């Protein structure tokens, strides 16, 4: 009985730890700290690196991206040292923390960068395949959101292809569903032809 209690306690503890790590709103913290104000009042209102880029500060956007990746990677990497089951719990909890942060009335980012972070710790070949997919789709279509959706949708397939584990595939499928759901407005704009494209160079004066 004590073994079961300890297992449940460990699972709950890692769920909380990973959720809290994922819920740190680095985009909001960094933009306020550097004098850019509340990132939620700019562009899409999202707290992720893509919206931080709209401040015109590329370095700040890069730092935000790295921080959002790390807050997914670290809790999963540490949890994995105590067992695959705890790592799986941390994967889902970290992404949920980013998407639904308690500090921001459960209104967070879209989970792409944090999703990459958890996959790098959980199943790095899947993360690499997803990143390559993003790059290819982004270069061809010049839609960042479409690239993110394609990479996310294919992540469960990549998991089964490389890991050959049904449990891991369902874990990745779970976070893929969350991330795709958060892109509902992007999907609507893509269908209407109103989604903004990636700028590959400076606009002429």
Q: Can you offer a commentary on this structure?
A:
- The protein is mainly α and 205 residues long.
- The protein is 72% helix and 0% strand.
- The chain has one domain (2-192).
- The chain contains 10 helices and no strands.
- Helix 2 (26-33) packs antiparallel against helix 4 (58-80) and helix 6 (112-122) packs antiparallel against helix 7 (124-141).
- The radius of gyration is 17 Å and the shape is globular.
- The mean pLDDT is 92.
What is the residue-mean pLDDT, rounded to a whole number?
Answer: 92
The tally of structural domains comes to: 1
Secondary structure class reads mainly alpha
Give the overall shape, derived from the CA principal axes. globular
Amino- and carboxy-terminal Cα gap? 72 Å
Quickly count the helices.
10
Largest beta sheet, briefly? none
Number of strands: 0
SSE topology string = HHHHHHHHHH
User: For the CA atoms, what is the radius of gyration?
Assistant: 17 Å
- How much helicity do the residues have? over 70%
Low-confidence stretches: none
What portion of the residues fall into strands of 2 or more residues? under 5%
List keywords for this structure.
single chain; 72% helix; mainly alpha; globular; 205 residues; 10 helices
Topology, element by element:
Layout: H1 2-22, H2 26-33, H3 49-52, H4 58-80, H5 84-99, H6 112-122, H7 124-141, H8 144-163, H9 166-182, H10 184-192
Helix pairs in contact: 1-4, 1-5, 2-4, 4-5, 4-6, 5-6, 5-9, 6-7, 7-8, 8-9
